Amino acid sequence: MSRQTFVRAGVVSALVLLGVFAFWQTREGADERVIRQRLETLRTEVNDSTVDGLGTAARAAQIGTYFTEDAVVDLGGGAVPIRGRETLIGMVARLQPRTAAFRLELDDVGIEVVPGGTAADVLLTASFVRRIISTGEESRDAREFALVLVKADGVWRISRITAIDTLR
Amino acid sequence: MSLTRRVVFGRNPRRTAVRVLVLASLSFVMFRWVLIPIRAEGISMLPTYQSGSLNLVNRLAYLNDKPSRGDIVAIKLAGPHVLYVKRIIALPGERISLAAGQVYVNGAPLAEPYVRNRSPWDKPEVTLTSREYFVIGDNRGMSAKDHDFGRVDVSRIVGRVLF
Questions:
Q1: Number of folded domains in chain A?
Q2: I want to staple B77 with a disulfide (CB 3.0 to 4.6 A). Which of A21, A144, A153, B157 is the partner?
Q3: What is the mean pLDDT of each run of 10 residues along chain B (163 residues)?
C-alpha cells in the first residue's frame, strides 16, 4: 500500500467514524421523539398565546391538556408550588396577557424514558425572551427545569415541573 | 475544463472534495468539542461584554489547570446551547460575602477594577465547598434581583471565555 493510499484510507475511516459517532449521539427512540414533539407543540401553544383569536380561557384549557390532573409546578425561589391542573389553568388564563409579551424557547432537551416506558425524566433549558421596545434588543431569562412526564392512554402528559437553581 | 469549474472544483476535483470534507470535519470537531461560539445576550456582563457581542468558549482551558479568580467562564444549564457567562470571584473553600456592593473574600475586600458602578448588593457570608466556585457578572449597577449570581458546582463550568 502506497503512503498516499494509506493516508487516504485513514482520512476516509476517520470521517466514517465521525459520522457514526455523530449519528449515535443524536439517535433517539420513538417515545423520545413523541415527547420532544409534544414539548415543541406546547411551546408553540404558549407562544401563540391569544394572537390566533382563540379566547384566553380556551387557550389556557388547551395548555392544561398537556398536564396531568395532579400536576405540580415548583418554580423554586421560595414560591409555593402550583398543585393541580385546574389551578394551573386558572393561573395561565390570568397570566396570559402578560406572557403574550414573551417568547418561550426550549433548548437542550434531554429525555430519558424509564424502563417500562410509562414515565420519562426530561431536563431542559427554558428561556423567556422579551424584546425591549426602546432599544430593539432582546433580553433572555434562562432557567433549567426538570420535568417528569407520564404516559396514560397513549398520551404523554407533564406530571411535575421543578426549577433547578444552577447558581445557588 | 471551463474557468468556472476550475475555480470551483480546482485542478483536481477529487482532491478538492477530500479537502472540503476534511475541513468540514475539522470545523465540526472544533466548534462542537473545543471552541463553542457564543453570543452574549443581556446586560449582566457590562461593561466587559455588550449584549450581542460574539465570543468563543475554550472547552479545553481547564484540562490541566483549575479555574482561577477573575476568569470569565461559561456555565451550562441543561446543556451547551444556553450558557451563563460569569466571572469567578471566589474559589473552593473560601468564604464570600457582599456588603453594600463590596465583595469580601475570607473577610478581606476584593479589588475589582472591571466593575464600574456598584449598587448596594448584600449577601450573607457563605463558605464554598471543595467543588464550588462563586460567580457573578461585572454589571453591579443593576438590581441584584435581576442578576443571576451565586455558587456553582465545578461540573457546570464548560470552559473559559477566550477574548
A1: 1
A2: A144
A3: 76 85 90 90 91 93 96 96 96 97 97 94 97 97 92 97 94
The answer to whether the Cα torsion of B92, B97, B102, B106 is positive or negative is negative
Tally of CA atoms within 13 A in the half-sphere of A153 that contains its CB: 2
CB contact (8 A) between residue A124 and residue B28 = no
At A61, the amino acid letter reads: A
Q: What pTM was computed for the model?
A: 0.83
B contacts of A111 (beta carbons < 8 Å): none
User: Do the chains contact at B81 and A139, CB–CB below 8 Å?
Assistant: no
- 0.85 surpassed by complex ipTM: no
Note whether residue A11 is domain-resident: no
CB pairs under 8 A between A and B: 68
Residues of B in contact with A165 (CB under 8 A): 150
What CATH number did the domain enclosing A114 receive?
Answer: 3.10.450.50
By the 8 A CB rule, do B73 and B66 touch?
no
Q: Does residue A40 belong to any structural domain of this protein?
A: yes
- E strand residue ranges, B32-122: 35-39, 54-58, 72-76, 83-90, 95-99, 102-105, 108-109
Name the residue range of residue A97's domain: 26-164
Q: What class has domain B40-161?
A: mainly beta
